[in-house]
Amino acid sequence: MSISITQDQIARWMRDGYLQVSDLLTLEEVRQFMDHEADPETPKLRNGLRTHLTDPVWKYLAHHPNVAGIARQLLDGPPRIVQTMYLAKAAAREGEEKGGIGISLHQDTHYLPNEPNTLMACWIAMNDTDADNGGLCVVPGSHKKGLRHTSLNTDPEHASWETEHTLRTRDGREWKQTIYSYHIDGIENETIVKLAVPAGSGVFFTGMTIHGSYANRSHTRPRFAFPVHYVREDTWVLRTDVQETTQVESAYATS
Ligand SMILES: O=C(O)CCC(=O)C(=O)O
User: Which residues on neighbouring strands pair with residue 158, listed in sequence order?
Assistant: First the structure.
């Protein structure tokens, strides 16, 4: 029997732009994923942001009825999988202040333009995560204030990158665009909520919700997370590398 969310949870999602849900995965499912990642054969199954097409364990998570089923409820329609990622952040080494660095506070719609904008994520904790080990941060209500102005991140607290992508509209217009590590200026510290998300629990957030993370400052605890990004089936994703989305096979368990 898969988990489904209540009207009250849907109202909170609409108000806050995110929703934390407990026990999406059992601890056994979390353990199976972590064992799989530790297997030296697993990297052969990698396929960039589309590893859910080539790795059966990633596929299982992206189609998981608790994850994709709740995405279906929140999107009010069938979800399609856009991308999957595994974000592992090492603990700080002895004598060092920080381990794995964070991802600057951003809105995913900047990274994954899509029309109509139905982009959402489910960020699943694969161990106990919180402010100390570089857990997920969100700015509640930020999804209601439009796409924010961005600059290139230069803070060593957060990763920095620039990648050129091809974008294509539904009617075939095509252009190149540099996608970079977006930094949103002017976010007030007190509006940032640092979430504590235990292993197997997850956070759903919209493509417009400002979120990100800071460096891992724990000297004993790494941080592991598996985000899956979905759009509703009527949506066109502009980036050609992830334009071909995947129909969810098991989401219908909750409908
Ligand atoms: O886990 C993190 O550090 C940030 C995750 C994130 O930005 C995302 O899943 O879109």
Answer: 102
**Is residue 104 in a domain?**
yes
Regions in the chain scoring below 70 on pLDDT: 250-255
List Cα–Cα distances, 138 to 151, 208, 224, in angstroms: 19, 11, 17
Domain total for the chain? 1
Q: Is residue 134 part of a domain?
A: yes
Q: What is the pLDDT of residue 219?
A: 98
Kindly state whether residue 149 falls inside one of the protein's structural domains.
yes
Q: Give the pLDDT score at 1.
A: 81
The enclosing domain of 66 has a CATH number of 2.60.120.620
* Ligand 1 pocket at CB < 6 A: 87, 102-103, 108, 121, 123, 136, 211-213, 225, 227
CA–centroid distance, residue 171 to ligand 1 (Å): 31
CA distances from 234 to 68, 78, 230, 243 (A): 16, 9, 12, 13
What DSSP string runs through 226-247?
EEEEEEETT-EE-BGGG-S-EE
Domain of 196, in residue numbers? 7-254
| Shortest-distance Cα residue to atom 7 of ligand 1 | 212
What is residue 154's predicted lDDT score, i.e. its pLDDT?
87
Between the CA of 138 and the centroid of ligand 1 the distance, in Å, is 10
Spatial CA neighbour of 19 closest among 3, 36, 2, 43: 3
Residue nearest to atom 8 of ligand 1 (CA): 227
Closest CA to 227 of 114, 138, 132, 131: 138
- Residues 197 and 119: their CA atoms lie apart, in Å, by 22
Residue 2 belongs to some domain of the structure: no
pTM: 0.96
